Amino acid sequence: MLVKVFVTPRRDILDPQGRAVEQSLKSLGFKNVSDVRIGKYVTLNVEASSPEQARAEAARMCEQLLANPVIEDYRFEVENS
Amino acid sequence: MLVKVFVTPRRDILDPQGRAVEQSLKSLGFKNVSDVRIGKYVTLNVEASSPEQARAEAARMCEQLLANPVIEDYRFEVENS
Fold it and tell me: In order of start, what are the domains of chain B with their CATH numbers?
């Protein structure tokens, strides 16, 4: 099953990479851009017998490795593939 | 308008970060994981008069800065917000 994981910096956490990209976009002429946040987009395949099992594994992977829950939020989607 | 951009390494391009994460997941006990790919997930706000205008701007931002079309693919979604 295909798992898509979206990891984003938490709202209340400074995102220096997002700031830098926002400045770059503005200097390229995109003046109407704001609130740029940079996160990670992880895709992976899990051999699982059911979507529920894949979801449970994905949640554990996020907690243990893919996201840092102190400074990042995550969500994921599971697709039969 | 809220723009969500998904940038992924192209299929035919090696993804060393994905490889490293896959190895780490396996050593954590997730033996049934494969094909891990790590991309970027960028969210931003665009002041635009229509979704079409926001989409056109987002495409230009991706081409010019957010993605490297030589080694990365991108797609994006525009939401009224």
Answer: 2-79 (3.30.1280.10)
